[in-house]
Amino acid sequence: MPHLQPTIEILRGYGAFTKVITQGRRYEKPPIKAFVEIKSSENSSLRIGYTITKRVGKSAHRNRLKRLMREAFLAKKNEFTRLLGPNNQIEIVFMYNGNSKIAPKMVRFSSIADAFSSISKIIAGEK
Q1: Model pLDDT for residues 27-57, shown as the tens digit of each residue
Q2: What is the pLDDT of residues 85-100, one digit of tens each?
Q3: What radius of gyration do the chain's Cα atoms show?
Q4: Which sequence spans correspond to the domains of the chain?
Q5: Quick one: CATH architecture of 7-120?
């Protein structure tokens, strides 16, 4: 059985995505952009969302990229959970950059995982 994220960690809804993208800080490490919003809250939580623009290509390619992004996050989850403070709520939207020079069907897990790792280090350095 695959390791799935608990539902509490999934960012859902157009409004939630729009809020994080417009109000959050933007970090970029090709082929991934991350929009991060850190808020104070009574309990600490990490909520994640994934998005890919339609200009990337066919739905099969977009779905594959979303699966790769979810797996890369699960592999690097500890790096992001270290960012949580005692009373912080962190919301992150990961967006695949459609302007990447690599064709969507040629993107590998390692390039996305490396981008996630770099983004978590950048966020940790600014905190």
Answers
A1: 999 889 999 998 888 778 889 999 998 888 8
A2: 777 889 999 999 876 6
A3: 14
A4: 7-120
A5: 2-Layer Sandwich (3.30)
Q: How many CB atoms lie within 10 A of CB 117?
A: 16
Return the structure tokens found at 16.
Answer: 């939630």
Give the pair of three-digit tokens for residue 19. 């809020």
Cα 89 from Cα 86, distance rounded (Å): 9
Which tokens go with 38?
């850190």
Which residues contact residue 115 at a Cβ distance below 8 angstroms, ignoring those fewer than 6 apart? 29, 30, 31, 32, 72
Measure the CA–CA gap between 62 and 64, rounded to whole angstroms.
Answer: 5
Single-letter residue type at 64: R
